[in-house]
Amino acid sequence: MSTKIDYDAKIPNNVDLSGDRRLQRALEGWQPKFLDWWGEMGPTLRTEGVYLRTAVSVGRDGWAHFDHVNVPDYRWGIFLAERDPDRVITFGEHQGEPVWQQVPGEYRADLQRLIVIQGDTEPASVEQQKLLGLTAPSLYDLRNLFQVNVEEGRHLWAMVYLLHAYFGREGRDEAEGLLLRNSGSPDAPRILGAFNEETADWLAFYMFTYFTDRDGKYQLGTLKESGFDPLSRTCEFMLKEEAHHMFVGTTGVDRVVTRSAELIREHDTFDIAGHGGIPLEVIQRYLNFHYTVSLDLFGSETSTNAANYYTAGLKGRWQETRRKDDHKLTDAAGSLPRPRADGTWGTDELQAILLLNLDLREEYRADCQTGVNRWNKILDEAGIDFRFVLPHPGFNREVGINSGHHVTPDGTVVDERTWLAGKRRWLPTPEDLTFVRSLMHPVYERGKIASWVAPPRQGINGKPFDYEYVYLS
Amino acid sequence: MTRTTTVTFERHPGGYRHWKLSTGGDVAWLELDVDADGGLVPGYELKLNSYDLGVDIELYDATQRLRFEHPEVRVVIVTSAKDNVFCAGANIRMLASSSHEWKVNFCKFTNETRNAMEDATAHSGQLYVAAVNGTCAGGGYEIALACEKILLVDDNSSTVALPEVPLLGVLPGTGGLTRVVDKRGVRRDLADVFATRPDGVKGRTAVDWRLVDELVPRQGFREAVLARAKELARTSERLDGEGVELTPLTHRYVDISLSPDEATITVKGPEDDGGWLLDVTRELDDAILRLRTNEPELGTWVLRTEGDPAKVLEHERAVFDAKDCLSNEIVHYWKRTLKRLDVTSRSLIALIEPGSCFAGLLLELALAADRQYILDGPPIDDEDSEERASIMLSEANFGRLPMGNGLSRLESRFFGDPGHVTRLEDERGKPLSPAEANDLGLVTDAPDDLDWEDEIRIALEGRASLSPDALSGMEANHRFVGPETLESKIFGRLAAWQNWIFTRPNASGPEGALRRYGTGQKAVFDRKRV
Predict the structure, then answer these.
(1) In this structure, what are the phi and psi dihedrals at residue B287, rounded to the nearest 5 degrees?
(2) CA B6 to CA B291: how far, in whole Å?
């Protein structure tokens, strides 16, 4: 199987699509439906060309090509990381066996479910971000938004390819279903809650790409370990693209914090709302919300499904091969903090294999903390005495053992009244949302930027900030 | 499951932990909202609207109250109060940690509750509609299957599923497989695909395969379901009449005494109490359930009655002749309670003595038993008494109270000689002496007062010495002669297979599917087909 991407094909790919007429026909049948979906649910803002990155090769060197592209003409396709012919399954009861190139019959339903759920999240964020182009703070940001969007679309293609190639008619039906569910739709919402939330403003977008796309990174990281090789290779390449989304999030929040710090220094007050900046407390509340909603995406702390997927070799742990244990976990134990009715925390001892979602969530939490440290460094360097804090994992949770409990950001279990009384300090209020939205005026002039965010330190692909990243009509 | 929990069956909507019952007009809502921490026995969490016996006891109570207390209700909408999940079915950790007899008893009770829902639709004009508003798996789908109509939310992700075979290595134990093909008429090959797919079937396919009746959009789901229910309510043939409140049980008419080997259930006939039949039925129903659940080692039940046979028949006529909702409900409740007795895995021995009142509908108790002994002589403790035992046939014995196989107990008893049942019609309303009862084949034996005590002792001791499993199998075979119905298939065929599967290592061995479920480890199967 060649790893060179064939851009002459109707559907660019590096899986020798032209050699599989049945699959080619199936995907070519899906393609117009995808384009219809993109037209209807994709970015509202029409452009003449966006300076986009397109993958040209999946190898280590020089995989991307940059040029202005008319967004609907973006060459979505199917790219898998290179195949390692010696790859073996590294965990679960099939440990040491060669990876599967076909779906094992007994795991068909589980694999299909995993792929559908992953696939369902990809177009969701495009839908959630549909209107953001209308209020972009700069052409640079607008370009990043489109880059994220087209790649989410590409990730949808990645999952659809797997469904079409390996799951027969049912897979094709599921692939169609991915376009029929829509974020926030009252009739057919996306499967996971966070993907039905609104991304109403650019601060939310930065938070989303920092926190929620980072969940995607960890989920893809576990699927990359899969014994089902096509899934593994698909996810490996998706991770490469996903990194940019998180870059948008990390630097986006950086720039908001930088700008707020400037305004605080300039006006010698934390109350910078009147000066066109976003107060640090509002940023903290956004952080609290997006982080906790993203934690819900990891599912329940104890999960039989996750355990079954692991034993079966379908979904591993984050960086499975670097773990120093037996990679079966049948005898290992782990502990799970649990809020108690009396307001204290207890600990349950459980089989480690039942705590895989918690394991992944902890990896994620540590990663999220690095961003917070980074933003605090900006404040520190500006001599501002305020620190962002990642809230306790029990805070504001709808899924898992913490749901139904009232936990404050510092991890205190409180009663409902206390929680409701504090809620306005901890989560974005309607006033916060209205205020942030009031700042969202589009700035489409080259080299200009909105009042509430600092310009980036570097442009894209060595281009300056004032480069014309987007040709507007 | 150790027997530290004594299970009671009396519930009241005010105290429900898992269901919300709301009525108003001709449509009632019955919403499942399981309290995850409210399991009947410690050791499992009832996640995702999964249920245990306690949840089903409340459902049973609700179905009873809807029939008796709400004559105005013509359609009952069964749905979930939780988002995105209708019901995940029987709780697997509960099943995995339960003893064999607890599992089987649980399945039996849940089946009886599902049958009661179908009985309400068939005989009370109270139609059950399942409004499946999220994931619906295993026992959850079996609840839906017990409803007359199944509406499924069309959100492109909610499915119905029977994942027992692929996930647990057991069968959908509450009639799932049987109802899919026999009741809903799903094609057998599609049923095969369906029951081996752990992820189930959604949307249009579910309709095409007849797994559900209709799809309903997610937006405005409740309103659409209510509108559908209102339409159905117009087709209902529910009788008019006053309802009656099911007040706490008084234990006036049914007495239970326990000895090491057997339980004796004594049913008292009416005095001048117009509410006798409803009370006695409720008490007997409760007695059967409590004995079944809490006294699994009492393998023999002795059935006795006390009272005036003439008064039984008089009361019976009054109830049977009234054509109102309440009387109809009472007759059908007595019918269901007798059915509960029919499917009870205990040896049932009826003792007909002087002072007993095995007449008409109470004679059915004796006919439900595996053996009937009538004392041909004076009462054992009063040899000078003139009193003699007798039995009486009535209209109640000729089809009003059918068994699960669709036959009356007399038709079942004389399956080899159907003409005999016709001849017995002439004996209605007459007291039949022990000798006559014996000649007519209505009793097993009629020992005289000299032999009685020894005969009964030997019969009971002999019974207690036999293998309980063999007895359960033998009795079930003898009780249900002749044709198969949905019910008899569920209780006979399905239950027997499930019983067998439950004890097999592939399901309940240490490496079996049921035991391994939830551990993250896969079941190890003995691949030999048996």
Answers:
(1) -65, -45
(2) 10
- Under DSSP, is residue A100 helix (H, G, I), strand (E, B) or coil? strand
- CA-to-CA distance for B347 and B302, rounded, in angstroms? 8
Distance from CA of A272 to the nearest CA of B (A): 41
In what helix (H) or strand (E) does residue B78 lie, and over which residues does it extend?
A: strand B75-80
Task: State the DSSP H helix or E strand holding residue A296, giving kind and residue range, or none if neither.
Answer: helix A280-296
What is the arithmetic mean of pLDDT over A307-320? 96
C-alpha pair distances (Å), A236 with each of A87, A175, A233, B434: 14, 21, 5, 86
Nearest of B148, B143, B142 to residue B75 by alpha carbon: B148
Sign of CA dihedral B381, B387, B389, B393: negative
Which of A240-244, A398-402, B233-237 shows the lowest mean pLDDT across its residues?
A240-244
Beta bridge partners of B306: B268
For residue B267, the Cα-to-chain-centroid distance in whole angstroms is: 20
Q: Tokens representing A337?
A: 């903090």
Q: Which amino acid is at B366?
A: A
| Spatial CA neighbour of A294 closest among A466, A121, A64, A171 | A121
**Residues 6 or more apart whose Cβ sits within 8 Å of residue B291:** B256, B263, B265, B298, B301, B346
Neighbours of B379 (CB within 10 A): 17
Could you report the per-residue pLDDT of B102-158, keeping only the tens digit for each? 999 999 999 999 999 999 999 999 999 999 999 999 999 999 999 999 999 999 999
The single-letter DSSP state of residue B455 is H
Which residues from chain B sit within 8 angstroms of residue A93, using beta carbons? 521-522
CA distance B520 to chain A (A): 4
Question: Are residues B337 and B285 in contact, defined by beta-carbon separation less than 8 angstroms?
Answer: yes
Provide the 10 A C-beta neighbour count for residue B507.
25
Q: B493: which DSSP letter?
A: I
Contact state of B522 with A312 under an 8 Å Cβ cutoff: yes
> Which of chain A's residues have a Cβ under 8 Å away from the Cβ of B157?
177, 181, 188, 191
* Residue B89 amino acid letter: G
Between CA B377 and CA B304 the distance in angstroms is 17
Question: Which amino acid makes up residue A349?
Answer: E
**Which of B326, B153, B155, B316 has the alpha carbon at shortest distance from B238?**
B326
Beta strands at B371-374 and B50-51: parallel, antiparallel or unpaired: unpaired
**Residue A54 pLDDT level (bands cut at 50, 70, 90):** confident
Element at B350 (helix H, strand E): strand B347-352
Put simply, the chain B residues between 485 and 514 with a CB less than 8 A from any chain A CB are none
* Helix ranges (DSSP H) in B70-196: 92-97, 100-124, 139-145, 176-178, 188-195
Residue A404 phi, psi (nearest 5): 90, -10
Please name the residues in contact with A53: beta carbons below 8 A apart, sequence gap of 6 or more.
Answer: A64, A65, A66, A147, A244, A460, A461
Residue A427 has pLDDT above 80, yes or no: yes
**ipTM of the modeled complex:** 0.80
H or E element: which one contains B373? strand B371-374
Q: Looking at the complex, does the CB of residue A307 fall below 8 Å from at least one CB of chain B?
A: yes
A26 in reach of chain B (CB within 8 A): no
pLDDT above 80 for A4: no
Q: How far is A237 from chain B (nearest CA, A)?
A: 28
Residue written as tokens 């009661």?
B116
Which pair of tokens denotes residue B287? 């007695």
CA A305/CA A235 separation, integer angstroms: 20
Please identify every stretch of chain B with a pLDDT value under 70, giving residue numbers as ranges.
Answer: 1-4
Model pTM score: 0.88
Q: How far apart are CA A388 and CA A371, in angstroms?
A: 10
What letter would DSSP give residue B273? -
Kindly tell me the burial class for residue A141, based on how many C-beta atoms sit within 10 Å of its own C-beta (0-12, 13-18, 19 or more). Answer: buried
3-state secondary structure of A229: helix
A 10 A CB-CB count for A346 gives: 11
